[in-house]
Each structure stands twice: as C-alpha cells, then as structure tokens.
Amino acid sequence: MAVAPLATASPSGLPAAGPAVTVDSGTTRLTPAEAAELDRLIAEVQREFAQTGTHKADVTTFGAKEEAGKKVIAALKKAGPKVYRAAIDAAKGGTASFNKWVGGLAWYHPVRMLISAGGGELVDWLVGQLMGG
Questions:
Q1: Has residue 11 been placed in a domain?
Q2: To the nearest whole percent, how much of the chain has pLDDT over 90?
Q3: How many C-beta atoms surround the C-beta of residue 104 within 10 A?
Q4: Is residue 56 within a helix (H) or strand (E), and if so which, with residue range?
Q5: Which helix (H) or strand (E) holds 30?
Q6: Does residue 10 lie within any of the structural domains?
Q7: Spatial distance between the Cα atoms of 28 and 109, rounded to a whole number of angstroms
Q8: What is the C-alpha separation between 92 and 31, in angstroms, rounded?
Q9: Rg (CA), the chain
Q10: DSSP structural state of residue 2
Q11: Residues 34-60: pLDDT tens digits?
Q12: How many whole angstroms separate alpha carbon 68 and alpha carbon 47?
C-alpha cells in the first residue's frame, strides 16, 4: 500500500490539506481549513514573539505578548470547557504544573502547538492570566 507524500510542511507539522486529525479528546476534529487556521495562528504567535526580540518590558513588547496570549486563550476556550478548566487548574499550580499539563497533551493538539510556538515567556503570561480566571 503506497502512502501519498505530505503536502508542504506547515508550522504545526500537519499536512496543508488532507483528512481531519482527531485530537486526544476524541471530540475535536481539524478539517483542512482549521489546520490552515492553526498554522496561521502559530505563525502569528511566533512572529509576535520574534518581534519583541529583547526581554525589555516596553509597551510594544507587552502588546505583542498580550496579543499572542489572547489568541492562545481563545484557542483554549474553543477546545472546550474541559480543556479550559484543566488549563486553569494547571496554571493555579504554577509554571511547572502548567508545563506538565501542556506536555501531557498530544503532540498534535492545537493548544499544545500554539503554546510551544510562543515559548517560555508566553507560558509565564498565560499562567498569570489563567490564575486569575
């Protein structure tokens, strides 16, 4: 049985087009359009964090991190109340607990990909926001 080659590589590592991907909850499926949107969001998060370049806390840097963080929070909410609640509970345990929770998500989970794209500074921002949630 021959396997068709994947389409061009995307930031999420998913094929640019093809069958839906079942996420670990078994209820969320990514269509090709949703996978493309995920790739777009990952690219935006990476670009916004790359623009900050330095670790200086100026207004521009904060704005870019906040925008990227808001996109990840929106993705958490879209993933469903179970995922969102688990993220809040993990964040209340601190950064290490949150990182452990993210690491427990399937490698192809959209939320894990977005958080991984943002790196440590995004995780710190998310933990601070979710602890208040």
A1: no
A2: 28
A3: 12
A4: none
A5: strand 29-30
A6: no
A7: 10
A8: 33
A9: 15
A10: -
A11: 777 777 877 777 776 666 554 444 444
A12: 9
d(CA 77, CA 86): 11
The Cα–Cα gap between 130 and 71 comes to: 13
Question: Rounded CA gap, 68 and 81, in Å?
Answer: 21
d(CA 133, CA 60): 25
78-105 tens-digit pLDDT: 999 999 999 999 999 999 999 999 999 9
Containing structural domain, residue 65: 32-131
Mean pLDDT, residues 15-38 taken together: 57
Q: How many domains does the chain have?
A: 1
Q: Is residue 59, in this structure, part of any structural domain at all?
A: yes
In a domain, 86, yes or no: yes
Specify the residue for token string 């994947």: 6
